[in-house]
Design brief:
Six copies of one chain form a homohexamer. By secondary structure, the first copy, chain A, is α+β, with helices and mostly antiparallel strands. In chain A, the strands form two sheets. Chain A has a five-stranded mixed sheet. A four-stranded antiparallel sheet of chain A has the order 7-6-8-9, sandwiched between helices. The longest helix of chain A is centred in the last third of the chain and has 25 residues. Chains in contact: A-B, A-D, B-C, C-E, D-F, E-F. The interface between A and B is large, with 36 and 35 residues. Chains A, B, C, D, E, F: Homohexameric ring arranged as a trimer of dimers.
C-alpha cells in the first residue's frame, strides 16, 4: 500500500503551465503532484568556447532548489559558495537528456540553456525537470522557427523522465518524498518517444535488486513516460 | 509621459497570493506589475551564534534572482560561487526592514528566515520583496500563535517598501524596468504603517537632486505604501 | 550630551595629508577625528570590458579595513576568501559618489581606481573614504592635466560625505563609534559643492524616524560637508 | 573489431598489488590494463556529525586524478579550487557502492575513507576504483579484526564494477579510452558477489539503446565482475 | 655602484614610529627607506584549536600589501578571494621568526597576532615586517606586564631581518626595488640579538652562488641587523 | 644516534624508476627511503600570458600530497578548495630550482610542467620532488631532442636537493620523519652539479643555529647531492 493510496503503476497528477514567465524564450511550470519546477529556456547567439567555429549549437542545463522548497529549509547554494555534488550530477543529467533529442547541427551556432528551479519538492525533481525542460525547449525552438531564425526543426523527438523504485518490496512508479526516503531501490529513467532509452540509473539504497527488478522498473517507467509525453504535446498545442 | 501610461503617483497592480507553497510556515507570491517575487518564511527553533542565550529571536533574509528572471539571462550565483554585492546589499536591507517591525524578545529564541526569490523582474524587486516578506512573516507568526508556541504577537505593525524616482524631470512612483534604467534618481523607501520611516535611500544616477526632490519622492512613497498596506491586510485576512 | 562633548552640529577635527604615499598618482591620508583612511588614486590606461570602445572612462573604488583598525581584531577578508556584504556595499557607494562629479567622456578611455583602506576606525569610515577619495582623484587628475594627457578637466565639482544620526533623541553630526553603536537612526549623505544631493541613506536602528527627522539630518550634513569642502580645497592648494 | 583486438566479452588484464603503501590501514594499486588507480583505506575513530551517537559507522570515498594521468595534462583540481561535477559524481558512486556491502552497525562508530587516486587513465577509472576499494577496505577491516577492535566482520560480501558499452553497434565489455570516446552508449554496473545489482547506469552518447541492449550490457558486466571477484579474493589471500 | 649611491654595507634610513594606531595593544609604522609597513599586535585571550588546554600561547602573523603600495596597482587579495603563494610564504616566515624569540609557555594561553600591512613598497617588505613586528610585540607584551596579566617576560631576546643580495657581482645589504629586480641572488636573514640565526634563505635568481657568497651575504646581514636592533630598542624606550 | 641507525652523513637508499607512467613526456617514481614521489613532465606548445611573444619557454611545477601519503589522513586540497601555504611554497621552490638549470631561450616557446605528487611521505618530500623533477625534465627534453623539436639541449646541468638538520645537537643528512619532527633546525639545499648553490633555506625549529652550523649543514648537503647526481645519471642512461 503506497502512502498516497496510488496504484503501483499510477503517476501523480501531471500539470504543465506553459509560458509561466514573460522574458524567457520558453518557460513552463511543471508539476508532478506537489513537486513543482519552473523551467526556462534561454536562447543565446553564441556557443561555449569548445564549440566555437564548429558549425553546431549546444543545449545545456542548470538546476537549483529554492532553500525552502523542502520540508525543512536547506542552505542556499549561492550563499555557501558552491553547488553540491547532487546539484551538479542532476544538471549534467538534464543537459545530456535534452541533447539526446536535439540535432545540434540543425540548431546552428547558438546555445539554449535550460534553467530548472525547484519551487516545491516532493520527490522526482530531476525527472520533472527533464520532462518540463522538453516543453520549454520546444516553445523556444518554436519561436526561433516562427521568426525564421531556424528553418528546420532541430528537435528530433520527445524526451521525458520518471522515477521508479522498489518500495516495501513492490516496484512502484513516480516516487513521492515519503516513498523516496524509504525505498530499497531508486531508479530514474529517461525515455524517448520512439521507445528508446537515453539514460537508466538504478541505485540500491537498502536491499540490492536483480535483473528482473530492473526490468520491472523500466516497464513502469514506460507507463509513466507515456502519460508525460501526452501532457507535453497538449501543453505545446501539438 | 510614463512608458506604461501610468499617472506619476500610480502604482502598478499589486497582486498577493498567500500560501503559494506548501512546506514553508509562511509563503506568498507577490507581484508589482510584472515583477514577481516568491517569499517564504521559515521558522527554526534556534538563533545565530551571536544571540545564543540572550533570550531573543532573530529575523533575517536572503535574496536571489532566478537566472532568467530578467530580459537576458544572468549567470547563476550558485554556479559563480559567490553572491554579488547587489544581492548582499538587498538582503541586508530586507532583514533590517522586517526587524524594524518585530519585537525580537517577544519572538523568543527562534529565527525566521525570509527567502525572497525573484521569479520575474521588471523593476522594484527589492521593494516587492520587503512588502511580500511582511505577509510571509505574518502568516508564519500566525501559525506560531495558533499552535501556542507564541502567546503574544511579536509583530508590532506593518512594513512596506516602494521605489520612486525622477524620470525625465518628473518624480514618479513605482518605477518599472524601462523607467528604472533611464531615471535621473532612484529611491527606495521603507515605511511603517504608523507613518514612520525605516529606511530611505535615494541615489542620483544622472543629475543630482535637491531637498525638495527628496521630499517629493518621499511623499509619493507614502501613497504607494498605503496601497501596499491595504493589500497586505487583505491577503492575510485582517 | 555627546560622549565626546561636541555640539550637535560639530564635526570632529578634519585632517587631510595629501601625497601620503609615493607611487600612486594621487594619495591622501584623511582623518575625521580618530578615523583615518588612506586613499590612493591609480590611473590605468584601459577601461573595464563593458566600456571598451565607447570613448569614455571609468572611476571605481575598492574599500578595505585593516584587521586591527577596530577596537577588537576582525578577520582579514583576504584570508577568509571573500569580501563581506558591508564591504561591497561601501565600495559601490564610493564609486557612485565619485562618478557623480566626473565627466567620464572628458576623462577619456582610462580608469581611475580609488583604493580606500581604513587604517584606524572610529565611525564614519565610508564618509571619510568618499571625502578623501575626491582629494586623491583631484591630485591624480591634476597630474594628467599637467602632463598633457588630459586637456580639459573632467572633475565637475566637489563631493563630500558625512554621517549624521539621532542619538538619544537629538540629531547630531558626524557620529563617532560610541554614538554610532547606540544611535536610533544612522544616515549617510553624499553632497555636492553646488548643494545637490548625490546620495541619501537613512536607516532606523532603534526607533524609526519621520520626515522632519530626515530633514534635520540632511541640514546637519550640509554643515559638515561645507567644512569638508573647505578642507579639501586647502589640501589640494586651490 | 575492437581497437585492442579483444573479444567483445574480454576484460583487459586485471592486476591487483595489495599493500602498495605503508601508512594506510589498507592500500592497493589496481590496474585494468593501462588504467591504474591507487586506493587507500583510512580508518578513523570518529563518524561524521550526522551519525554521532547513532551507534553506527560510515564508509565514504574521495576520488582524484593526477593532472597527467591522461593523454594531455588536465588542470589540478586543488589549484582550480574546486572539484568538478564529474569528480563529485564518481566519489558519491564509489561511497554508495562500498556501503552496499558493509554492515555499518557492525563497523561501530568509526569511519573508513577510501581515497581513489588515478595514477594513469585509460577508461574505466571509476569501475577500477570501486573494485580496488573493496580490496583496500577488506585489508583495513582485516587489520581491525586482527587487533580485536572488531570482533565480527562488517563486510557482507564482495562488490565490483565494470564498464560496458555499445561500440560500433556491438556490446563490449570493459571499454578502454579509444572505445569510450567513440561508443554509442556507455554503462557502468556495480555488482555484488551474490549476483545482485547495486547500481546500474547506462547513458546514450550517440544513438539511444533499447531494453535488449541494456540486458546485453548487464550480462557482459556479470562476466567481467566474476573475473574481478576472483582477482580480489586472490589479492587478499582468501 | 648601487642605484641609490649607498655603500655595499649601508642600510637605508630606518624609521620606527611606535604607537602609530590607537586600538591595537602594540603598533608601529616601520620604514626601511621608502618601504613602509604598519604592524599591529593584537592580544586575544584564546589559542588556536590545536593548542587548547596545553598551557601555552601562540604568536602568529598575517601579511598584506595595499593594492597601490607598489609602482603599478596590484589586485586586492580580498577581491580575488585568495591570498597568493607569496603572501602565505611571507606570513609563515614572520610568524616563525617571532616565535623564535618568544617563550610560548611564559606567554600563557593567549594568542598575539601580528598584522603586517605594507603601505608602501620599495623592496624588503618581509624583512621590515619582521623587524617591526618585534617592536609591536614588545609594546603589547609590555602592556600585559604593566597590567599584571603577565608576571614574567616571555620575550627572550630581539629578532630582526634584512635582505642582502648579489647585485652586479657585488654582495650588497638591504636591497631596494631597483636592485631587487636585477639581482643575481636574493637572500633574507632573520637574526637574533645573541648572534644566532633563526632563518636563512638565499635564492639564486640569475647566476647561482657559492659557499663564500653565502657567507658574505650573512656577514652583511649581521651589520644591518645590528642597526635594526639599536633602532628597535630606541623605539621601545629601552 | 639516529632513529634509523644511519651515520650522520648517510643518505637513505635512493631509488629512481624512470618512465613510471605511459602518457607523460617524462615520468619517474623517485624514492628517498620510504618517501615516494611520482613526478611527471608535461610538454605544452604554449607559454603563460606574461611570456607570450618573448621567444622563450617556461618551466613550472605543481606539488600535491595524496591524502593518505602520511601517517594519519590529511584532508584533500581539492575538496577543501584551496592549496595550503606549504603546498604553494614548495611548488614555487621546485619551479625555481629547475629553471636554475634550464636555458629558457633554448627551450623555445613551450612550457614544461613538473607535477610532483607524493604517494608516500617520510620526510624530504620537497627535496625528492626536485631531484626527481630533474629526471622527468631530462626524459621529456630527450624526447624533444629525438623528435627534432629541439636541436640544442636547454638543460645546462643537473640540479638536486636534500634536507639536513640538527638533530639532538648533531648535524645529519636527509632527515626522515621521526628526525624531522624533532630537529632543532631543518634546512633544504638545492645544489647544482657544478657545485654552485641555487637555494639555501635553513630554519630554526627549536634552538637557533650559528654560522658554523649553517656551513656544516651545507657540507652534508654536498655529500647527499653527489649521491643523487649519480643516481639521476644512471636513471637516464648517461
Amino acid at each position: 500500500m503506497r502512502p498516497s493510496g496510488r496504484a503501483p503503476d499510477q503517476m501523480r497528477p501531471i500539470s504543465i503551465e506553459p509560458n509561466f514567465t514573460v522574458h524567457a524564450e520558453g518557460s513552463v511550470l511543471i508539476g508532478f503532484g506537489d513537486t513543482k519546477v519552473l523551467v526556462t529556456a534561454s536562447v543565446e547567439e553564441r556557443v561555449p568556447p569548445f564549440l566555437r567555429g564548429k558549425g553546431q549549437g549546444w543545449v545545456t542545463a542548470e538546476y537549483g532548489m529554492l532553500p525552502r522548497a523542502t520540508h525543512t529549509r536547506g542552505s542556499r547554494e549561492a550563499a555557501k559558495g558552491k553547488q553540491s555534488g547532487r546539484t551538479q550530477e542532476i544538471q549534467r543529467l538534464i543537459g545530456r537528456s535534452l541533447r539526446a533529442v536535439t540535432d545540434l547541427t540543425a540548431l546552428g551556432e547558438r546555445q539554449i540553456t535550460l534553467d530548472c528551479d525547484v519551487i516545491q519538492a516532493d520527490g522526482g525533481t530531476r525527472t520533472a525537470s527533464i520532462s518540463g525542460a522538453w516543453v520549454a525547449l520546444r516553445l523556444a525552438v518554436d519561436k526561433l522557427l516562427a521568426s525564421g531564425a531556424l528553418t528546420s526543426d532541430p528537435i528530433i523527438q520527445q524526451v521525458a523522465a520518471v522515477s521508479c523504485g522498489i518500495y516495501k518490496g513492490t516496484p512502484v512508479l513516480d516516487l513521492d518524498y515519503p516513498e523516496d526516503s524509504d525505498a530499497d531501490a531508486d531508479a530514474n529513467f529517461v525515455l524517448l518517444s520512439d521507445g528508446k532509452i537515453a539514460e537508466a540509473q538504478a541505485t540500491a539504497e537498502g536491499a540490492c535488486y536483480d535483473e528482473e527488478g530492473l526490468l520491472r522498473l523500466l516497464r513502469l517507467a514506460r507507463i509513466g513516460c507515456n502519460d508525460i509525453f501526452a501532457a507535453q504535446l497538449k501543453a505545446v498545442g501539438r
